[in-house]
Design brief:
Strand content: 15-25%
Strand order of the largest sheet: 3-5-1-14-11-12-13
């Protein structure tokens, strides 16, 4: 046990690490509750239409099959806060993969056999799933994801762009991408005889799942408990409740027994969200010295007919570079596709790929070093709002990264470096992500033995939340971190927001800091020994987080990459990759480095391996498992380094921290793409940069 307080920022090991590597940590589908049944969801096999009949007799005749729930016999639910949760309520099929039934059996194998024995007939309707830049159904929404205005314009972009002596006008495309966490979306549900619903759910936010289930099943929130103690990744796909929790609760109510439902991997692409494809036109106008005079970023994307979700890919252009004249816009069309949703760094990840690639193209047109071009256009105030930045150390990240990477030794000529058949190149790109924080509640307790307990319904999706929250509390309480117990992942604990938007630690930590501070004050008022029950205080940060800041608050960073392109095969290998970030005060150097490198690895996958296509005829994602959807392997992610500039920013939260979970992916794909251009002289504007695309361009 530690005997002295450790400074906030120390590389404290994750306290649940041993449980995870030894198998002691239990996930949502590993509980083995007494009498538990197993459920298998049944996806629609047509891209648009309605179910006309489901014959269940053969399935129910199989040994061990207890029930088949369809829209004809499933429990009726209330109006959901998210339309994707309205499962088994009608015969509509809005897209292929929409769940139309669930089979419940004694074993997982029996449930799957029952699902295969169903006979389903449909009435089909015409469908359309392919996004095009000139789609007839394109419209301008009121807002994009996050509540950002879909359109923003300042100055006279058309006039300024036409007058600019140097211009870039180019279009970048990215297909659909999928989160694919290691742990599939899973839930185990059971109802007490008194009607209390308990759901163990693989979720990024148990409070939100509790509230959604209460609405659906006509319960008070205190009649529902959602537990998400360990979550094997999410990357946004578990940020909102998903249908498996609803189906498991339905099946448990229908059978009167606990029911476990683990989403089959091949089903996930259709029901847990995806990064929507984008077609992005970027236009940059500049003076010959590199000063930007006109910036336009116009995005086209798709949504579903179930609900509207608009990837906010043009929003980063409102933050990054100063120019008197700017246009940013989003247009969307509703197709017969699964509903897109959050994927790590929504908006910023695809948007900064396009913007940072275009900035590199501008540097080439100007004959100017791409690091220097970015430095010349680094604004003092946020261009869109005119607010001063609470801190903006993009320039420091670029300079520090260039020094660490050896950028000054770079030969700027494309295709100048070779090792036999290998073409070598280096690239750079900037990164940004906004600072978010939401209202959170926390409890702090002091026991007579001198130990402390913190309770907050945070969720640890692999980021080390338990550890860093203990560090925050220990710092305030001036006690060793091992003297602080942290309870999270249970909706019966004080309400807290989800782990998403790089806001989890800032939100939960703020309430933990406030509760611990109040506890110190309470203990200071106590003159005698503590009562046997100890002393407990609670905190609520609703007022603090609702206050509008006079500052623009963002994290920034810079990526540098070196690649080798095999001229014989078209294969691209990232030899080394460096990220330098300015994200406030780093609260745990060990877990922070892991988060940064994890994001960079996802950016590498976005650039080189990850690809998904919608089949125009069948209406489904062709790449629907990890055999066909290629995420980077360990051999792909070598030579990755992450560093940071520790910022002293008093305008954020009591810890002085910014989110770090998502900025690592932002700009990473652009740095790799820019390096490929430097290696080959070829500018490919569609991701991923696969060997077939490189070979077609090389020869």
């Amino acid at each position: 046990m530690s005997h002295a307080p450790q400074p906030l920022g120390a590389p404290v090991a994750r306290r649940e690490g041993r449980d995870k590597v030894t198998g002691a940590a239990r996930y949502a589908a590993e509980l083995n509750l007494p009498g538990c049944l197993y459920a298998w969801p049944v996806p629609a096999t047509v891209p648009h239409g309605r179910v006309t009949a489901i014959r269940t007799a053969d399935a129910l005749a199989l040994p061990g099959v207890h029930a088949v729930l369809t829209h004809e016999n499933a429990p009726r639910t209330g109006e959901p806060d998210d339309p994707i949760l309205a499962v088994l309520q009608n015969d509509r099929v809005p897209h292929r993969g929409w769940q139309i039934a669930v089979v419940v059996a004694d074993t997982l194998e029996g449930a799957r056999a029952g699902a295969e024995a169903l006979h389903v007939t449909y009435e089909t309707a015409p469908h359309e799933v392919v996004l095009t830049a000139d789609h007839a159904g394109l419209y301008t929404p009121e807002t994009a994801n996050g509540g950002y205005p879909a359109e923003r314009e300042r100055g006279d972009f058309d006039g300024a762009f036409a007058a600019a002596p140097v211009q870039v006008d180019t279009t970048y495309t990215i297909g659909p991408l999928h989160n694919h966490p290691m742990e599939p979306h899973s839930s185990t549900a059971h109802w007490s005889p008194e009607g209390h619903l308990t759901v163990y759910d693989s979720s990024q936010g148990a409070t939100k799942v509790r509230d959604s289930l209460a609405t659906l099943f006509g319960l008070r929130p205190d009649q529902v408990t959602v537990i998400s103690r360990h979550v094997g990744g999410g990357f946004g796909s578990k940020g909102t409740p998903r249908p498996q929790a609803v189906l498991a609760a339905m099946a448990a109510r229908h059978t009167g027994r606990p029911v476990e439902l683990a989403m089959p991997r091949r089903h996930m692409a259709a029901v847990v969200g995806h990064r929507a494809p984008t077609v992005q036109r970027v236009r940059l106008g500049a003076e010959r010295d590199g000063t930007l005079t006109a910036v336009a970023h116009e995005v086209i994307t798709h949504t579903s007919t179930v609900k509207e979700f608009v990837e906010q890919a043009a929003v980063p252009a409102r933050v990054m570079y100063g120019s008197a004249h700017s246009r940013t816009s989003h247009r969307v069309t509703a197709l017969d596709v699964p509903s897109p949703s959050w994927m790590r760094a929504p908006g910023e990840a695809p948007g900064m790929y396009a913007l940072e690639s275009a900035v590199d193209e501008l540097a080439t047109a100007l004959g100017l070093d791409p690091v220097e071009l970015r430095l010349r256009n680094d604004p003092a105030d946020e261009p869109d709002s005119c607010k001063p930045f609470s801190s903006r150390n993009l320039a420091a990240c670029l300079r520090d990264g260039a020094a660490r990477f050896g950028w000054s030794d770079r030969d700027p000529r494309p295709g100048a470096r070779r090792e036999g058949p290998l073409l070598l190149g280096t690239g750079v790109a900037a990164a940004t992500y906004p600072v978010y924080a939401s209202a959170s509640h926390a409890l702090a307790h002091a026991a007579p033995d001198g130990s402390y307990r913190i309770a907050v319904n945070a969720t640890d999706i692999g980021t080390g939340a338990r550890t860093v929250l203990a560090q925050i509390a220990a710092r305030v309480l001036e006690t060793p971190v091992d003297n602080v117990t942290v309870d999270i992942g249970d909706s019966d604990l004080p309400d807290a927001p989800l782990a998403g938007g790089s806001s989890g630690t800032a939100s939960w930590g703020w309430s933990v800091h406030k509760a611990a501070t109040a506890l110190v004050e309470r203990l200071g008022e106590n003159s005698g020994p503590l009562p046997a029950v100890g002393v407990t205080v609670t905190a609520d940060t609703t007022e603090e987080t609702a206050a509008e800041s006079p500052y623009a608050r963002h994290a920034f960073g810079a990526h540098f990459a070196e690649v080798a392109v095999d001229s014989r095969t078209g294969e691209v290998r990232v030899r080394r990759m460096l990220g330098v970030f300015a994200a406030g005060h780093i609260l745990n150097s060990r877990t922070a480095r892991s988060q940064f490198i994890g994001g960079m690895t996802m950016g590498l996958g976005m650039a080189l391996t990850e690809s998904s296509t919608l089949d125009a005829a069948f209406g489904d994602f062709t790449e629907s498992d990890l055999a066909s959807y290629h995420v980077p392997a360990c051999a792909d992610a070598t030579g990755l380094e992450a560093h940071w500039i520790d910022e002293d920013d008093p305008h954020l939260n009591p810890m002085g921290s910014k989110g770090i979970g998502e900025i690592g992916i932002v700009g990473a794909a652009a740095a790799i793409g820019n390096a490929v251009h430097h290696a080959t002289g070829l500018r490919l504007r569609t991701l991923p940069l696969t060997p077939d695309r490189l070979l077609s361009a090389l020869y």
